[in-house]
Amino acid sequence: MARIYVITSGKGGVGKTTSAINLSAALNHLGEDVIIVDANLTTPNIGLHLGAPVVPVTLNHVLSGEADIADAIYEHHSGIKILPASLSIKELRKLNYQNLIDISKQLKKLADHIILDSSAGLGKETESAISASDEVILVTQAEMPAVTDALKTAKLAESLNKHVRGFILTRYKARRSEMPLTNISDMLETPLLGIIPEDKNIQKALMLKDAVFHTHPRSKASRAYNKLAERLLGSKYVEKQKEQETSFWKRLFR
């Protein structure tokens, strides 16, 4: 059954879009069909990160009823499907954020996983993305302002009756000046899903306009996002491993 995850955070600049893109890339690498949606409508970045800042049809056209959803989905060279938002400020005036809920339901028929990259903050835009999801994944860094804002986002999700799956800790340096991991988990009252270490290759990937998972597959960040994807899949990933092992032995004996 398809699942919709919203990648969100109360604070901007914590690696929300980077995590949405690279988690999608890792899931796709593990054989999952993925659609990444730029639900950050006021300041969309998915297209910029992936080298397609301007496309003919966007999520904005779908939300305003000017286009069908199938016309706004594009396929990345890696196989990830992308539903980008428009950079045009004029198109923001036509939007009805609540339509995102209906669109998300349609997307569940087209992929195994739908990843929504939401806007930062706690406004109507973020609220609509959380409402359109099945589960919420928080993104934060090991500093008090970021964790406090993530906690506010978790409370918003709870008020909307949405399950918070856990949190991703980004740009982690393992320094004494950073908040201890146990303190962050206790404060957010939700499990740690993955730690993404500080990695200069993420900036290099941004310059190359692709996911670091594709440009630097052996980097620390890429390995961390792969572990995150495996954990998200859980038992499904274990079953896939067993199938691959069985297929290997069958081919060997054959």
Question: What is this structure, in a nutshell?
Answer:
The chain has about 250 residues and is of the alpha/beta class.
Number of domains: 1
The named CATH superfamily:
P-loop containing nucleotide triphosphate hydrolases
* Alpha carbon gap, first and last residue: 34 Å
Which CATH-level-2 architecture?
3-Layer(aba) Sandwich
Quote the beta fraction: 15-25%
The amount of helix comes to 40-55%
Global geometry? globular
- Unreliably modeled segments: none
Using the CA coordinates, give the radius of gyration.
18 Å
What characterizes the major β-sheet? 8 strands, mixed
Instruction: Using the coordinates above, name the CATH class.
Output: Alpha Beta
Q: How are the strands of the biggest sheet laid out side by side?
A: 3-4-2-5-1-6-7-8
